[in-house]
Amino acid sequence: MTPREEKAAIRNERLALRDAMMPEARIEGSLAMAGHAGDRIEFDPGTVISGFWPIRSEADIRPLMAHLRTRGARLCLPVVLDRETIVFRELVVGAPVVKTGFGTTGPGPEAAVIDPDILLMPLSAFDAAGNRIGYGAGHYDRAIDRLKAKGRTPMLIGIAFDCQEVASVPAEPHDIPLDAILTESGLRMFQQVS
């Protein structure tokens, strides 16, 4: 089995486990995430943090995002422009969010496009070394590459439930490891080798 095929199998397995969680467990887990990370994620006021509006069975990090805003974060959400590209549009209080394609919700085209310093990223699976499996489209990988090309190195925090952890992700050279993972059990920082 190739690494790509192995990732697809792990993705399907872990998303099925996440989908099988009771809605109440997802809500409680999402609230626990806000409690674990709301004051532990370090940043200066004005730091741009990208979150996401939940789709399917993803964790709902809106309570966490609201708390980060009270600490001075500028928030943005990823918007899928096409099969290749996501941009990050600023999420300001009182501004409407709209359907932005591919099942996502975010600020409309009138919102400012900004570059995040911290990305809170949904994912399919992760391991204890900080390797992740996304949803297979590569949107975040390409967005991170674009940020790095601008001289930016955003902090990458994966968002998942405990059931999405696996013993080992078949990491490939192009894969970008996480700096941290947030689950209902807590915020874990990874020591990355440079």
Helix-strand blueprint:
Elements: H1 3-19, H2 23-37, E1 48-50, H3 62-70, E2 74-80, E3 86-91, E4 97-101, E5 104-107, E6 118-122, E7 125-126, E8 132-133, H4 139-149, E9 155-159, E10 180-183, E11 186-189
Parallel strand pairs: 1-2, 1-6, 6-9, 9-10
Antiparallel strand pairs: 2-3, 4-5, 7-8, 10-11
Helix pairs in contact: 2-3
Keywords:
two-stranded antiparallel sheet; 11 strands; seven-stranded mixed beta sheet; 194 residues; alpha/beta
Walk me through what this model shows.
By secondary structure, the chain is an alpha/beta fold. It has one domain (3-189): Rossmann fold, CATH 3.40.50. 27% of the residues lie in helices and 24% in strands. It contains four helices and eleven strands, in the order ααβαβββββββαβββ. The strands form three sheets. The protein has a seven-stranded mixed sheet with strand order 3-2-1-6-9-10-11. Strands 4-5 form a two-stranded antiparallel ribbon. A hairpin with a 5-residue loop joins strand 2 (74-80) and strand 3 (86-91). Helix 2 packs parallel to helix 3. It is globular, with a radius of gyration of 16 Å. The mean pLDDT is 93.
